[in-house]
Amino acid sequence: MENNVSVRIGKEELKEIAKISQYRKSTKSAVLREVLSLGIKLKRLEVAIEKFQNNEATAAKAAHIAGISLSEFLEVLHERGINYHYGVDELREDVKRLAGYD
Hints:
- The protein has one domain.
- The chain is 69% helix and 0% strand.
- It is built from five helices and no strands.
- The protein has helices at 11-24, 28-53, 59-66, 70-79, 88-99.
- The radius of gyration is 18 Å and the shape is elongated.
């Protein structure tokens, strides 16, 4: 079930939403829902990368936070040039997590 939420949006952002809705022949509400969904996915990935880089999460746990597979997460790290710092202990923990033993 969807809920209503009130949010203040700046004039420039509202203009951009209106442009996109015209291009897509869609409502502003539909565009905002899509933008929010994309933003949530991006924010989850950013949080996951931050936790991984701060040694607060293994790669598998960070992938779970991001909502993507471990291989996708490792590919993102590679694309961004982020050091994996992925040792034997992390591998063991990730294997347990992937096997459902956590």
